[in-house]
Specification:
Elements lengths: L19 E14 L2 E8 L2 E7 L5 H7 L7 E10 L14 E12 L10 H6 L2 H6 L1 H4 L3 H22 L4 E2 L16 E4 L7 E4 L4 H9 L4 E10 L10 E11 L3 H19 L3 E3 L8 E4 H8 L12 E3 L1 H4 L5 H8 L3 E7 L7 H13 L6 E5 L5 E2 L3 H4 L1 H10 L7 E7 L1 H18 L7 E8 L4 E3 L7 E3 L10 H7 L9 E6 L2 E8 L4 H10 L4 H15 L6 E6 L1 H8 L30 H7 L7
Parallel strand pairs: 3-5, 6-9, 11-18, 12-18
Antiparallel strand pairs: 1-2, 1-4, 2-3, 4-5, 7-8, 9-10, 10-23, 13-14, 14-17, 15-16, 15-17, 18-21, 19-20, 21-22, 22-23
Helix pairs in contact: 8-14, 11-14, 15-16, 16-17
Length: about 600
């Protein structure tokens, strides 16, 4: 029986000198030097240089002369030391080479559409790389990513299992649920006219496990959401570290999760954890405070640049854009950018457009010149004294720029938050050697719907417990009700969502009633959950960190698509397997599905 290898390409050293070895792999490169042929042979463990000398084996040399890159070959040869001047310190096997006696071509290759190495491969068009993903995966960086992901999954499983958690696989064919995104629906052949839905999260199932008496659950769970892709959100599917616990409060969940995030950061990245409390715990920032100070509920705390409310300071001032906004119940906030006075007029215009994308009407500014002189079209309306007060309030000094937002509170926060983020990028303040984790707590339970004007909808997870229970739901303005919901942010990316769950049917009915659902609709959509809660449900809570987004951030990948072995492109297409694709009419007929032109 043929043996394909005695060693892998990344392990040979002087310890194996004079040994006969068998190696198999891909031809990384081929060089012809004055009669000698050198082939760098690659597998996922590394590279070994193979030497073909016609005086050692004429037949092997003749075959090697016809070899091209990405051929799959098997060689037999002897390990020898490289001459002192030929040692390659960049290779783990750089002190040796293998003098080939035999060679066999196991598989030929067409000319690849791009070079299979990290430098050149990364320069290739992403669509080409995705179409030929099986080639892209041969690059060292991609294989390292898959290895890190595997090690992370092992670490997570060990972490939870040593703390008495049990891993449970929840259903993939599930029911449609309002988790905040569009479902992927699957028509049922057995039950015509009815549909399964791929789970946006295992939310209901993990709560049912708690009702079933399994007090500590976890799962590396696949989730499916029909959302538009972006840099930090893959299309269609992603994985989360799903966990749930019974008889817990918010602090119990934080105490379980924080050490895991510290371990993951230290083991799988070179980043230093920053922005910690004095006791080394992660900061906990209320949702409203996060929006007001940083303009985001996923703030990047690697840099300062805090936003400050100045509505009280400018109330009744002569600048109508500001004063009228406050009189109408809006807000005026200021954002001081250290060293921002060097921004050109073009850059300020670009920042203005970024603010407008978030709904702002414009972006007022004041530049603090050398000697404390102010430069801005709005100074003449504010007056020197008020301008000085504002500069003092935000602690602006020479060389700084102050940006202003005047609009509805949330619009102002969002617009200045985007400006803050862009300024940090332009000024080089996003230090990739740092990891800034922080909890965002005290989310509002309800907000006005973004789809249907005037309608109140859930701001976040509909299954979380309102902070004040049924009393708050019955007596308080819905927009003022605080939810037992929390997120975690890492360097400006939301990487976890969680909460203490609603385990009482009466409270669940009332919460959904406020969001516009009838009792009958709740029973129809969540009958299994409601039924379970009526049979003695323990207080419980949990969370679900997004493992792909965490890895992308900790390992500094440009896109979350680089975290997957086989990702979709920016339009949700699998270019390699050509999906989505049309199916036969017979398949649709069997499911009772008829296509409609859109």
């Amino acid at each position: 029986m043929q043996q394909y290898r005695t060693h892998t390409c990344g392990v040979l050293s002087k310890k194996e000198e004079n040994q006969e070895v068998i190696l198999s792999g891909w031809v990384n490169s081929r060089r012809d030097h004055g009669g000698l042929i050198f082939i760098d042979l690659r597998d996922r463990y590394g590279i070994t240089q193979i030497t073909f000398d016609p005086e050692v084996s004429k037949s092997a040399w003749e075959t090697a002369d016809k070899i091209r890159t990405e051929y799959v070959i098997r060689i037999t040869g002897t390990v020898i030391s490289r001459p002192n001047g030929m040692i390659n310190s960049k290779l783990g096997t750089g002190e040796i080479e293998v003098e080939a006696d035999e060679i066999e071509v196991l598989s030929e290759s067409e000319t690849p559409p791009f070079e299979i190495n990290d430098e050149k491969g990364q320069e290739a068009n992403e669509l080409i790389r995705l179409e030929y993903r099986f080639l892209d995966l041969r690059r060292k960086k991609m294989q390292e990513m898959l290895k890190i992901k595997d090690q992370l999954f092992q670490h997570v499983r060990n972490y939870f299992q040593t703390r008495d958690f049990i891993e449970v696989q929840t259903p993939i064919l599930a029911n449609s649920s309002p988790e905040g995104a569009r479902d992927f629906l699957i028509p049922s052949r057995i039950h015509p006219g009815k549909f399964y839905a791929l789970p946006q999260a295992p939310q209901q199932f993990k709560q049912l496990l708690m009702v079933g008496g399994l007090d500590k659950y976890f799962q590396i769970a696949p989730c499916f959401r029909d959302e538009d892709p972006r840099m930090d959100r893959a299309y269609g599917e992603f994985y989360q570290i799903d966990m749930e616990m019974s008889f817990v409060e918010q602090d119990d969940i934080f105490e379980i999760m924080e050490p895991l995030f510290v371990e993951i950061t230290e083991k799988f990245s070179k980043k230093k954890i920053v922005a910690l409390n004095e006791d080394k715990s992660f900061q906990r920032i209320p949702w409203r405070e996060a929006l007001e100070r940083y303009g985001s509920d996923k703030p990047d705390l690697r840099f300062d640049l805090e936003i400050k409310p100045i509505s009280d300071l400018i109330k009744g001032c002569g600048f109508s854009v500001f004063s009228d906004t406050v009189e109408k119940g809006g807000a005026v906030h200021a954002l001081k950018i250290d060293g921002g006075a060097k921004f050109s007029r073009k850059e300020i215009d670009e920042l203005t457009e970024i603010a407008k994308e978030k709904g702002a009407k414009g972006l007022a500014y004041i530049i603090v010149k050398e000697g404390g002189e102010f430069q801005s079209p709005i100074v003449k309306f504010l007056g020197d004294d008020l301008t000085k007060e504002i500069a003092s309030e935000v602690e602006a000094v020479s060389g700084d720029i102050i940006f202003f937002g005047a609009d509805k509170w949330k619009t102002v926060c969002s617009a200045l938050g985007s400006v803050r983020n862009e300024c940090a990028t332009r000024l080089g303040l996003k230090d990739n050697s740092k990891a800034a984790w922080c909890w965002i707590v005290d989310f509002p339970m309800f907000a006005y719907s973004e789809i249907e004007e005037g309608r109140i909808d859930f701001e976040h997870n509909p299954f979380s417990m309102p902070r004040g229970g049924i009393e708050e739901l019955e007596s308080k303005d819905p927009l003022e009700i605080i939810n037992n919901q929390f997120d975690i942010s890492l360097n400006g990316f939301e990487c976890l969502s969680g909460g203490i769950r609603n385990h009482k049917p009466k409270i669940m009915y009332k919460a959904f009633e406020i969001a516009g659902y009838t009792k009958e609709e709740v029973d129809a959509k969540f009958g299994g959950m409601i039924k379970a809660l009526k049979f003695g449900a323990p207080p419980h809570g949990g969370c679900a960190p997004g493992v792909d987004r965490i890895l992308m951030t900790l390992c500094d990948y440009d896109s979350i698509r680089d975290i997957y072995a086989f990702p979709k492109d920016g339009k949700g297409r699998d270019l390699m397997m050509d999906s989505p694709s049309a199916v036969r009419k017979e398949q649709l007929d069997e499911l009772g599905v008829k296509l409609k032109k859109i």
